[in-house]
Amino acid sequence: MASEGLTTSTSPRDDAAVFLTSVPELMEWGLHGAPLPRRHALRWRLGALVAFFLLWSLAGALVEWARPFNPLFLPTPSVVIGAIVALARKGQLWIHVGATLERVAVGFTTSAVAAVVLGLLAGQVRAVRNVLEPVVELLRPVPPLAMLPLFIVWIGIGEGSKVGFITYATFFPMFVTTVHGVTQIDGRLLRAAQSLGARPRQLFFRVILPAALPDVLTGLRLGVALSFFVIVISEFVGAESGLGYLINDGRNFFLVPQMLGAAMLLGLLGYAGNGLVRGVERRVLRWQQAQ
Fold first, then answer.
1. Tens digit of pLDDT for each residue in 42-72?
2. Is the pLDDT of residue 77 over 90?
3. Domains of the chain, residue spans
4. How big is the CA angle at 77 (ends 75 and 83), to the nearest 5 degrees?
5. CA 286 to chain centre
6. Measured distance between the N- and C-terminal CA atoms of the chain, rounded to whole angstroms
């Protein structure tokens, strides 16, 4: 009777059994554990967004009430969304979004093709790597903003300078990650494939390219994010459309809701671009262990 309220204790044998049953799970999922179910992960993400907008709304309301500075400089999310909806109703928003997406698509695609092709070549051929790497490492630390005036001088203030600027700025991370992916391939894999009679073409498509794909796709994700980062800078100069133009126009006329709204749209477009690359990554890298 006295033992009814006591908790039961486990024996050392039971503890050992629990540990041994957890070893296969540790081997399968690592120290971070099994991935969260998709619905559960979606709830966390939506919850984080809701919390962010609630904090933003609270900060805007406090500024409106206490007035430590002009509330115009920190509008609430409802005001920002209202400004974007107003632009959409006038038909102006889609022109600016389309212009930005077109520039990003052309510049990023051109850069990605050049970076991946040259990166794969430099990763396999040491002579090519010895030629390209010094030039890349010389130009890579130079901030892209420092090169924008040169692009304007060389190409003009039209679409060519904006696309070229995006191509230049996004080339380096994609090239470096591609070279790293190829050079980090285990030499035993290559020798094993060659010993089994793999020809150079088969060796490239069956061994080298699949092994380098994780790093290549990581570089593409970095390139997508950087594309939306530098497009704002290029659209500040000589542009008559684009989300960067909206931000610059809002700065000139103190249209803070327009500035924040255009920035939010850039973030959403960048998030969608990253999600697109992640979708491709999940499809082509099914052989990888889930993280």
1. 888 899 989 999 999 999 999 989 988 888 8
2. yes
3. 14-74, 76-284
4. 75
5. 20
6. 49
